[in-house]
Amino acid sequence: MCVSRQHFHPCLEPRCSKRCASPPSSPSFELKDAQVVALWKGPESPSPPPPAANPLNPQGLKPCCACPETKAARDECFLNSGSSEGVDADEKCKSMVQAHIACMRSYGFNI
After folding, report:
1. CA end-to-end span of the chain, whole Å?
2. Binding site for Cu cation: which residues?
3. How far apart are CA 11 and CA 17, in angstroms?
4. For residues 105 and 111, is the Cβ–Cβ distance under 8 A?
5. Which residues are involved in binding Cu cation (predicted)?
6. Which of 22, 61, 81, 103 lies in disulfide reach of 67, CB 3.0 to 4.6 Å?
7. pTM of the entire structure?
8. pLDDT single digits (tens) 30-69
9. Binding site: residue ranges?
10. What are phi and psi of 16, to 5 degrees?
């Protein structure tokens, strides 16, 4: 390395008396995309195991999509029941709600 006249790079000065046998090597700051992503994410944690298939729900239905018949009947009951008849909608539709809860539990949902 040449240190004359305040330059500290390997033999790039034309007047340098010491010549390097090989061309100077510059530090490599080139990172590949995968390295950048790895640095950004930090240490890799193990991924959780896939959820076990529910034997009661082999199709993997979500709660919003399970039991469409009882859900529609329950919703229709609440929409069409008014308090004008003197009977509260909660009491009138109780059997529909219970039927929907039973259907949801048959698929393994805990409601």
Report:
1. 75
2. 64-65
3. 8
4. yes
5. 64-65
6. 103
7. 0.51
8. 656 776 666 666 666 677 776 677 888 888 889 999 999 9
9. 64-65
10. -70, 135
